[in-house]
Amino acid sequence: MSSRKLPRSFYARETLTVARELIGLHLVRVGVHGRQVGRIVETEAYKGPHDLAAHSSRGRTKRTEVMFGPPGHAYVYLIYGFWNCMNVVTAADGVPHAVLIRGLEPVAGITDTTHGPGLLCRALQIDRALTGTDLTGGTLWIERPTRDVYRKPSIARSTRIGVDYAGEWAKKPWRFFDTKSPYVSTVSAARRKKMLPAPTST
Q1: CATH (domain of 99)
Q2: In a domain, 174, yes or no
Q3: Number of domains observed in the structure of the chain
Q4: Collapsing DSSP states into helix, strand and coil, what is residue 24?
Q5: So which residues are the signal peptide here (predicted)?
Q6: pTM, to two decimals
Q7: How far apart (Å, rounded) are the C-alpha atoms in residues 34 and 21?
Q8: Which pLDDT tens digit goes with each residue over 84-94?
Q9: Is-contact 189 196, C-beta < 8 A?
């Protein structure tokens, strides 16, 4: 196993800590398109079963079973009948917490848009077939970037997106993001264009 790949102990901690510390690390997918790498720039923490914004607040079901299992596994679900979204299971075995990966900055092997949870899953071919995948394995994992490519993020936090139905839980500032990245999902198209480097002529 790569020494840069996150060990299970990284995920087996307080979920807000994991959500924050994932910012700036690399999500790696090895599949039909080879090795694809993206820098994590936006996350959201979900702390069920009491957190009404978490899927696990509805109880232990076939869909959410992986969230109740050991940390360091992928939880992938479908929304709007179209978009897949990837979470990493955190905290202790039996505690249904997870962190949603909301935004990725392309590093290698990625040509499609990644500024949103559904978009990044489409770009990396992450779907429900990967739910339950061990993130310490060789298909899908998170690793620390090498020193030559590491960029320290400027981390801010806010309330989560699209969870107004969760009452008081919707007010929790459990979303973390890199303020310097144009790949954060809430960055406007105009600002994203300004932040991205100009294409070089060949």
Answers
A1: 3.10.300.10
A2: yes
A3: 1
A4: coil
A5: none
A6: 0.95
A7: 26
A8: 999 999 999 99
A9: no
